[in-house]
């Protein structure tokens, strides 16, 4: 350190970690580091330089040892989601396959608008040792490598070619990670030689800095135009998306809906914006929704979308709403606010709802409309109560969800992803606490469940150590990515994991059958190259990674096992077989566009194609 010049000589890697260590965020009067630490697997591309820097800050930026780079990224995404995008984790991977393994998790974070910082090894800038181990060679473009693939799945991308460059790159990356409109993963490629190069950095660069989340106020004209349309509505409805929670606008949404007597329906990401018992919560909407929400959505004349990106599972591939329904989109991101000829309100959800409340003063939706919506919800509640009830029928996802739901506490967090479980949880879970449901369906990514559960539990243990993180996972996703059971045990981050074994990829088998195809290559029993049939000992496998584990035969035994798991301080895996054909939630589905063969030798496929196409007349044509 040179006091006279106000500089300090550091390597690039040392400067990066020193800078991150000095970044804080203040939320509701609480100040804490914006980077909660990181997940890392070391290799020759990051161990000698970045590893040295992380070691020296291991007390304030704890580094969790990953088992798989992809699962590290999933854990980081779940951590950020728990903290409502106000904190993030870094992920560091070595050059080559280690970094390449992060591509899928970067895509998940990008699709879900979640912050994650990737600090990844890169080829030598000097090229003196080229080609090095694991380096891809593009004969006509020596600058092109694996890390360039991240440009498609990153909100911010940079490759550091000189130590001074990080003084511009790091603040820009953090600005992206914390921007409500542009939030997503940031990728920084670190050539192996540049990581160790030194530079005399100004000490001011490492002074502690406190960040605050930007709250963009809406344009007065946009609010006035939206309010005029809403005031004219006879059948208004609110779609509450994940952005409501990220904005901290749950109270404002509830107050707005209550003041104006407007029914609320939830997207998958917004699944826990209201408690199940709130009289204006009409249920989840869309392909994996509820009859109640879908019935109201298709009759609504004005739809106020708040913090929702209007993905096809929410909109029923744009058949869930009447052709002439007017959509108003209140969203921090301009891109989302203007979809399908929406009247946009580009604004933070909390601030935007406050302004809209003033502009809507005196308006109340017709009582008969709201009563109709509430009547539909009562019918849906009755269906769900029957659907989740154990009885003289095969074990199902819905029954499992019902048992766990009854035994959970309000602050217990539920995590699931991909396959059939997102649909079953979205439809059947009765929200006990605000923001306690994490159904990853933005990227619908198998493998997120256990890894995401671990990341969520790391975050949860910082704030609510006595609560539980409960993971629902099918046998297919378990086999794809399960090693973070070991991570959870290794770090004493207790999970309760429900492994529901239906013998393969049963939900895709259901789609296969529903489109007229025969079962093929989804269920183990229908895999022609499987020359033997046998089950996996999931209980034994989980035990081998340090977890308590048990296999149960039915929902009654599941309830007893779950109660024991809650009382335990150890990660527990509970295994139960469920039927791959029966027990699916049959109600609550909107139309969903899937590509089906326009011609086939099989009559069943031709008939199914005609049935799928029959609903296309209700699809909004991009306006």
UniProtKB/TrEMBL annotation:
Domain Thiamine pyrophosphate enzyme N-terminal TPP-binding: 39-134
Listed PROSITE patterns: TPP_ENZYMES
InterPro entries the UniProt entry points to: DHS-like_NAD/FAD-binding_dom, Myo_inos_IolD, THDP-binding, Thiamin_PyroP_enz_cen_dom, Thiamin_PyroP_enz_TPP-bd_dom, TPP-bd_CS, TPP_enz, TPP_enzyme_TPP-bd
Domain Thiamine pyrophosphate enzyme TPP-binding per the UniProt entry, residue ranges: 440-575
GO cellular component term, pick one: acetolactate synthase complex
Biological processes per GO annotation: inositol catabolic process; isoleucine biosynthetic process; L-valine biosynthetic process
Molecular functions per Gene Ontology: acetolactate synthase activity; flavin adenine dinucleotide binding; hydrolase activity, acting on acid carbon-carbon bonds, in ketonic substances; magnesium ion binding; thiamine pyrophosphate binding
Domain Thiamine pyrophosphate enzyme central residues, every copy: 223-356
Residue intervals passing through the bilayer: none
Keywords: Hydrolase, Thiamine pyrophosphate, Transferase
SUPFAM superfamilies tied to this protein: DHS-like NAD/FAD-binding domain, Thiamin diphosphate-binding fold (THDP-binding)
Family, similarity comment: Belongs to the TPP enzyme family.
Protein name: 3D-(3,5/4)-trihydroxycyclohexane-1,2-dione acylhydrolase (Decyclizing)
